[in-house]
Design brief:
Blueprint (H helix, E strand, L loop, with lengths): L2 H20 L5 E2 L10 H7 L1 H4 L10 H20 L7 E4 L2 H29 L17 E5 L4 H14 L2 E5 L9 H9 L4 E5 L11 H10 L4 E4 L11 H4 L3 E5 L10 E5 L25 H15 L2 H22 L4 E2 L10 E5 L5 H10 L2 E2 L15 H5 L4 H4 L2 E5 L6 H17 L4
Bound molecules: pyridoxal-5'-phosphate (PLP).
The site of pyridoxal-5'-phosphate (PLP) has 14 residues, from helix 5.
Length: 430
């Protein structure tokens, strides 16, 4: 090494030490609603099915049978933890695919039924107008709450764009609860499907899904429930809820990203949207991800064990965080239901500031949060839930979400509140 090189390397080292010493001692990750770490126990459980039990579960040889048995066991355990039967579970690549399969699959099954009805009518020489289904009939309506995730809302929009379905958005109140009277009115007018999320990703409000399901079923409208933010965090009982389909996503409760499931009752007819070899009851073709299914089952089981006690601790630290933030930043306003909300979820709007700018400043202070839903980040869009709740675009764009799956220490809460205050001051917002 030349002397000059040594000198420049020393300078670089000093610089990187200076940068490091400016950085806070450790990052505080408060974006669990977007994604979270995979525990070592989950990795340990899934790894043997990548390195040893790697057979294709559809193969008839011994390795294939080993994989198939593991897949069956994972499916049974996963189903039990969601109050479902093993036969209800369709493994997918995540929550988005599960939502797409429910919304598009149920509507496409309706279209297939109409084609078959028309074909039968043609064979029997009945006039085509005798068909009970035509565009804009009740069979071509989809009801969605106004705060659904884009995985649901965009799937409904796709049905409008390609098949002329009418998409009816059911309004929510100022805390993001679905308007059950409006739901009841629209359900009685008829629909192919209603979609109601169990817990909102942006503001944490837990929706009255049980009542919504009863209202829709009284009007013979099947219900899809997006439980992506709920599963593994609050109790989910698929059969008890009597939903027709329900979507979950593994990376929200400790499984790797790209894993999820749709739970379906056999009474619901679904047209597959991924065609191929007919795996997963013909509803989701593709070689099953055996290691992924094991990760889903183990992560969910661990998340459900001791949930009640953990949720009580989470809710206590959530409420302490809300108090500390509201004290540190005058004008900070909690969004969503203050009580009936996800236990590790606190969301706010802030005065005189853009949420993205605040997020970036907080990040530089080692506090990692989100400005709403992960999907909207970088697009500078106002979070849709907040607009549906009646907030102005400026208010909605000032939103930040703090989400966590482990209770926060009181020193962390103090640090977050102090950092927020410092960021607001640095951004001339207070
Ligand atoms: N539904 C809700 C409510 C979500 O919050 C998300 C992701 O954040 C999804 C669906 C999509 O799930 P995934 O990331 O597994 O595709």
């Amino acid at each position: 090494m030349t002397g000059q090189n040594a000198t420049s390397q020393d300078t670089q080292t000093q610089e990187s030490q200076a940068v490091q010493s400016d950085r806070p001692e450790r990052e505080l990750y408060l974006d669990a609603a977007a994604s979270d770490a995979v525990p070592a126990s989950v990795i340990e459980a899934m790894t043997p099915f990548l390195t040893e039990g790697y057979g294709n579960p559809s193969s008839v040889h011994a390795s294939g049978k080993t994989a198939a048995r593991a897949l069956d066991a994972a499916r049974a355990s996963f189903a039990t933890d969601l109050g479902a039967h093993a036969g209800d579970v369709i493994f997918t690549s995540g929550g988005t695919e599960a939502d797409n399969l429910a919304v598009k699959g149920i509507a496409l099954a309706q279209i297939r039924l109409e084609q078959e009805t028309r074909a039968a009518a043609a064979t029997a020489s009945t006039p085509a107008s005798a068909s009970p289904h035509s565009p804009h009939s009740p069979a071509h309506r989809i009801l969605i709450s106004a705060v659904e995730h884009p995985a649901v809302a965009q799937s409904a929009q796709w049905l409008h764009d390609f098949f002329d379905f009418e998409v009816v958005r059911i309004p929510v109140d100022a805390q993001a609860h679905i308007d059950l009277d409006a739901l009841s009115r629209e359900a009685r007018r008829g629909a192919t499907l209603a979609c109601i999320m169990m817990a909102n990703n942006e503001v944490g409000t837990i929706e009255p899904v049980s009542r919504a399901v009863r209202i829709c079923h009284d009007a013979t409208v099947p219900v899809h429930v997006d439980a992506v933010q709920a599963a593994g965090t609050i109790p989910v009982d698929f059969r008890g809820l009597d939903a027709d389909t329900l979507a979950v996503s593994g990376h929200k409760f400790g499984a790797p990203k790209g894993l999820g499931a749709l739970l379906t009752r056999s009474r619901v007819v679904i047209e597959p949207i991924v065609s191929g070899g007919g795996q997963e009851r013909g509803l989701r073709s593709g070689t099953p991800n055996v290691a992924g299914a094991i990760a889903l089952a183990v992560a969910l089981h661990e998340a459900c064990a001791g949930m009640e006690e953990r949720d009580a601790h989470l809710a206590a630290s959530r409420d302490a965080l809300i108090k500390a933030i509201c004290e540190a930043v005058p004008g900070a306003t909690l969004t969503g239901d203050p009580v009936n909300r996800l236990p590790g979820h606190a969301s706010f709007t802030f005065p005189n500031v853009n949420g993205e700018a605040l997020l970036v400043d907080l990040d530089a202070r080692g506090i990692e949060v989100s400005s709403g839903s992960a999907c909207a980040i970088g697009r500078h869009e106002a979070p849709g839930t907040l607009l549906a709740m009646g907030l102005s675009e400026t208010e909605a764009k000032s939103a930040l979400r703090f989400s966590f799956r482990e209770p926060l220490h009181h020193t962390d809460i103090r640090r977050i509140a102090q950092a927020l205050r410092a960021s607001m001051t640095a951004l001339h917002a207070m």
